[in-house]
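Input sequence (996 aa), recorded before submission:
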Amino acid sequence: MAAYAAIVSLVQILHPDQFPLRLRTPEIESLYNKVSSLQSILEKIFPITKNIRQQVIDLNGRIREAIYRAQDEVESFIIKHSLSSENILKEIIEQIDPLAVEADKIASSIKKEMVSSSAVDSLTKLLNPDSFPVDHLESQLESSEFEKLESDVQYLYEKICSLQSCLDKICAAPVSITVEVNELDIQIKAAAEETIKSFGSSKTDSEASESEIEDPAPPAFLQDLQEITANIEQLAEKAQKIADSINEDQPKAQDPSSENAQTTSKRDFRPKKKRIIGQEEDFEKLKEEILKEKNDSRREVLPIVGLPGSGKTTLARSLYEESSITDQFEIHGWVTVTQDYQLGEIFSKLFHSLETKGQKKGEAAQSEKKENLQEALYKSLRKKKYLVVVDDMWSEDVWDKVKSSFPDDSNGSRIVLTTRSNEIAKYAKASSDFLHRMKPLSLEHSWELLTLTVFEEDPCPPHLKDIGWEISRNCRGLPLSLTVIGGLLSQENKTEEYWKNIQGDTLDAASKGDEAYVEILFLSYNHLPGKLKGCFLYMGAFQEDSEIPVTKLIRLWVAEGFLKPSSLQIVEEVANYNLEQLINRNLLDIRKSTSNGQIKACGMHDTLRELSVKECGNEKFFHSRRKYVQTLEEGTNTQRRISVHRNILMCMEEVHNSVKEIAFARTILYAGAHHHHPLPYCLTFDRLRVLDAFTVYFIEFPDVILQLIHLSYLSLTYNGKLPSKLSNLEKLQVLIVRRHPKIIFLGTSILPDEIWGMTHLRHLLFTESDLPKIPSERNSILFANLQTLSNVSAASCTKEVLENMPNLTKLSMWTESPGPVGLYLDQVKKLVSFKFTVLKPIPKKKVEFMPKLYFPPTLVKLRLSGCSLPWEVMTVIGQLPLLEVLKLREIAFEGGNWSPKKREFLQLKFLLLEYLDLKKWEADHTHFRNLERLILRHCYELEKIPEKFANLGCLELIELVECSPDAVNSAEEMKESVKKRGINNKLKIQTYSSWK
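Predicted structure, token format:
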């Protein structure tokens, strides 16, 4: 529900540090306190079980409307300095009060209990000094022994009471420490039951009570007591640590520059090949059909048809990524077709995906103009045996237009087509006899997929097995339903009570017949914590099958203001945590990863996206304008955000007029392809927080933007200098300005001098430019919040400038040509990523970094281009303790020999060498012991790859693109050696050479 996101946003607006001091009134203060309290109450309403779900949904709807009303009034007050009526804030508070009372009643009704609670309660009663049977031991023990026994029992009783108190706090633990809590919970339960048993009870479960305890025999009792106490002490200490840590609903953050952070390993988020479960026969059947030699060898279309979420795309992807299949074809490519397709985009995506044995995907497309793509696609495939996957075809008409680009040269070419529609599948296969229908997974395979998703390689605990089988049965054999429910179960407490709730919910969903899968996906949304629901809904704003850059998504979420800040984390870390939670729940998938295995781009399954879009409408969260003729749902004009999927639409008067009826919009996202906006830009949304117009080119800067005082995110394409009044946007956090076509004006800045007064800026990105001169008089650090500074001239990055950016983590610098360059990176002690580019490199003329070449020890990513540095200075880079990614492009280093020194590049995972004159590379596995990927491009003089790299246990990929024949031969020899000796089965060696 959007209520929680709206509340968090309003709390931030009203926060004393944010709200204009001159406008603060007792009513504003009271509203802030009321809304803050309501936020805390809503955080306690979790999990939302079936018996209270409808009540919570209804309540959230009323809270959402009340908060929207309050936000409208407050933001209008900030703009106009007057309220719509004298008593409006009092009315809003009176509207919120009963909602908070109702929410508190629901929160109080939610029983949260640990598995071990019952056993610990029984043990507490047992050890109560008023009832524990130790008196009979007095006659059997020495006086000192008896006193010690009484003291020990009292001490153990106190520890158990302390443990009981901790359990009450731990039951509300955030999902980030679920695994740790579950393990401790099981240990405590076992210890409590074993203690009861050892004290003489004939029962071994948690139902034992003090009345059932027989007189313990002194020897056994005394012998066990010390060991029991030590065990309980250890568990109580663990429980206390967890309880103490639950002060925030987020895990503790670490300063990237701290010692602990430096040794903390990051999770690898690189997309992994999906394991096929229960569809092995389907795979083999399709593989056989793809590779089958036929008499006429004509081009053949092989349709795969099935319900949404039945595994069509996963099966097709597995076939496409199988080297024993693609090796039989000269060229192969992949394209996904969306419902709101554009023919040009289909051809563009397919053409960019084409890959041959001599050419990596995307390289052929770089030289083609968009208007020639259909013809270029046809020519690229002509006279070649090709394999093409057309995923998710929606229309016979679209298929007719697309298939005309696929030549039939009777050479055994194959087209694999996936679709939901039987009619389209039959139409596309034409005279072919083959059509593959997806079947539901068997119950055994469903259970296997569910347990793999929930527990990975670990077995399911016995107490959950029977319930889990029923949950898997209720998913009716649909892989998407199983993975989404599995993702939900993997992130929540693994208790019988919770799993029984999910079992009941999935049983209800299964009764819906053909719509069961929709109900199960909706169930996964309903079980999201409030803090994640806004993030999930936000994904509905983007186009189907979009690859959304994670850096952009996180900046948007932060600018929206619906993420609850934490005293332990910067808000970007909170956003990244939420993103990972959605991925862990299988509600988002990773589309691209960074060089060191972090998330670069994400996306959403089209069925989940349909759910998100539907809920966006219901929650008044986002309205998406997709086409010129579009039926607008009732209540569209009350939506809070607008997404435009075709940028050209906003140039059309009818569309513009209908969209501007959404008067209270806080966000406009232009999600379409690049478009010139030739008309004066008219904005009627004076409360905008986010304007993402990166793909819209403005001939003139829209002055209306300068009046948007709530704006926190602004991106656009504009070739002129930004106006000085940009500084009116005091809340601006993100400023992204692109020039198109790319134009660089040396010695000038597109930014106004007043930019230095915009102290809330966190991310500043633009096409290559200078910074304006820093003010000589200043009372504080100017850019204390700045984290990203991109494409700024090196001449601008003086020591004085970098001193005023102490929290900078990403920096990209350039210089026009080689020569002396001031480099003052010692001033940015939290720098994680650094890029330096020489725009016009000159061979044999190096960049001289002044006062010396220095990189901070916090650096994780380093990219250098055109510097012509001697290999001898590489030791400065090799000694960086955290460096994981090193990219050297276009004579970044010059010279024929590179011999790394011992114990260098110990943490390096990714190494790119491109357009270098390197001949001899003398290195072995002791230098790059954690290297995972080695990419060599256009290294025409390299004689060979270091032979010892075959012994690198972590190495997964060696890729050569247009390198020397000697280097390629050494790679091929290494491939044969690795295969023959079996020393690194995961190492993949690929070469792309047009000269072969």
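Checked by second reader. The radius of gyration is 32 Å.
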